[in-house]
Amino acid sequence: MGAGPAGLTAAYELLTRTDVVPIVLEKSEYMGGISRTLNYKGNRMDIGGHRFFSKSDRVMQWWQERLPLQKTDGQNATITYQRATREVALSQAGSDPNCTDRIMLIRQRKSRIYFLRKLFEYPISLSKDTLTKLGIIRTIRIGFSYLRSALFPVKNVKNLEDFFVNRFGRELYRTFFKSYTEKVWGVACNEISAEWGQQRIKGLSITKTITHAIKRIFRRKGDISQKQTETSLIEQFMYPKYGPGQMWEEVAKSVLAMGGEIHTHCDVTNLSVEGNRITGVTALNSVTGETSLFAGDFFFSTIPIKELVRSLQTGVPESILKISDGLIYRDFITVGLLLNSLKLSDKNGYARKLVSDNWIYIQEPDVQAGRLQIFNNWSPYLVADATKVWVGVEYFCYESDELWSKTDEEMSKFCQEEVCRIGIIETSEVLDSYVFRMPKTYPAYFGTYTQFEELRKYLDHFENLFLVGRNGMHKYNNQDHSMLTAMIAVDNIASGRLDKANIWEVNTEMDYHETKAVTSPSKKAPGSVTGVLETKPAAENV
Fold it and tell me: Of 31, 58, 171, 428, whose Cβ has the fewest other Cβ atoms within 10 Å?
């Protein structure tokens, strides 16, 4: 259920590792979920920004097997994988992206914070430029605030604000984290579970940022695995020539070629239940109006949990329904703007034309815009005309908000006025615009989330139902973690394992160690095991 990264990964893994034939039901006509690529007049948009980088060797290699790496400066790019106790340097003989479409580019990562109408390095560095822009008074306050938090931390961390304050100090939290985070979630940081911070940025701290700056001087060049680097600090990443959706379109082609089925425009309405097993899925085709029943032995759900629970054709306990219905999702709007130039400039870009950032976090509290993507810097092939600048301005809201209900014309005008007011563009430079809305993009860590464990246990008791992916697990996973949940679910099917604890253990910043494959990687029937994945939390997170 769902043709996003988790659903398509599950289908591919089932076809290559078992005799299970997958049937993928996708509500839309597109592959990739929020990892799809939009195409507007030849200008492509990445919904939310998808860096192809993972601490998992398994995922990194999986990506490269679909789309090989490009050559850089005449040399093959190298990624170092860990195979049991043996390191293997893999050089992919990629070619010129101008000559082939099936290729993974290597891109430099750069993101900054826009605050006080100025650009600050992210993660924040103690550079002369940063200190000058902050001013001596604010800098002193940040320093003393950080020392205070280091000496007298909040002992009982109850919410995300406590987490931020302990990690960065109250003044730095207010300066660079509070406004953006509250734009994303629509509630105060002290109303959000600390689990969000523990999952998304637990590896980032001031100490690690400084340590990283020192280590980069001595780092081996050319290896993009960056295994010892915190995700927020990576300096380069892989990226498909035509955006993330290209990867999932390739995977979908492979699934079909190997005998799998993909049905688009299929909205899941009912799940048939017998005892503790799911027996079938009923889906409504939104184009033909026809209803179809798909029987199966195993069921993978990547759809929002509250939709899944309401679809169960069984006596769901009232307490479970209440928790499920109380789960909250944050929705997402991207406004694509085609420009002659940006008003911003920096020493690494072209003055009044283009800056070097992949994205810019908009910390300014007087606008609702949360982040700016510059698609030219993700891949030059995302832009139809290389002389133009193609950006995506991102907004976070609820479907019930006034922002969501604006017409495309109103939303485009509102967006242009905001980014012009804070000095990022001139409205006279706008050539065209496109508005895209994505519901249920971010599963929230408030509402009834504190009771989620009870809901999870109830759903896990259906022995052949596997919750995978971001919405499928109501877990703010990155793309690679969504893929890993699907891979491990297939591992469990292949080995006959019924317990699903290892799927839920997949989390941001975990260390993934592949064990030696106990069989050859050929297609195997259920009951055999190929490349079992052992997951171990990093020592600091145990």
Answer: 428
